[in-house]
Amino acid sequence: xxxxxxHDGGGVRQIRLNRPEKRNALDLAHYRRLGEQLHxxxxxxxxxxxxFAAEGPDFCAGNDLADFLQGPELGPGHPVVELLHALxxxxxxxxxxVQGNVVGIGATLLLHMDLVLLAEDARLAFPFIDLGLVPExxxxxxxxRRLGHVRACQLLLLGDRLDAATALDWGLANQLVATTELPAxxxxxxxxxxxxxxxxxxxxxxxxxxxxxxxxxxxxxREIEVFRQALAGDEAxxxxxxxxxxxxxR
Length: 250
Hints:
single chain, alpha/beta, 6-stranded mixed sheet, 9 strands, 16% strand
């Protein structure tokens, strides 16, 4: 089964996670495929908007931790690092429609979207500290800027889950929609964006992103280095092993 689906139409490239039996947890193959899809969309002049969505009841349960522990060490050229930088610098508008559990990288991904639609059943979680790890994908920069220090600490240090209505109220999404209506509303929003004048759309996004670009990429790299060290440590290994054991017992 293809775990990442790509579809083009009307100036829109839709990239869909398609591993519902694993709650769309991302392994290294996913990261490579997502990178391929994203670079193809960026390089295609017919694509004006890139949409992220997912099959099944959950958008993304975060990283596939068992696969992550067995993969190559994080660093330049790693599929994860390559995708994070590509998304952070994507010149085309990024739109996401999310439902169900939105965990870890699934949640930090939303910070790099230009527009986010949340289904009413969406629940966001940033459980890095609980796993003996640290925030990633520039969330240590973007969440405090978006929410303020206190609320960012509530999510990143305490690891509190955030329901969809609160996420909307805090400014992490543009719209809250009924779960059954999410696909249609996502398509409608993507079409509206794709119908805009193409050059002006790209220029507008570039102007919005420019003030933070260098700091954004520097933060991604700094977080990756600390994340790499934490992942190799006893604290994270023990926490992750315990979590995987609990999952295996279900």
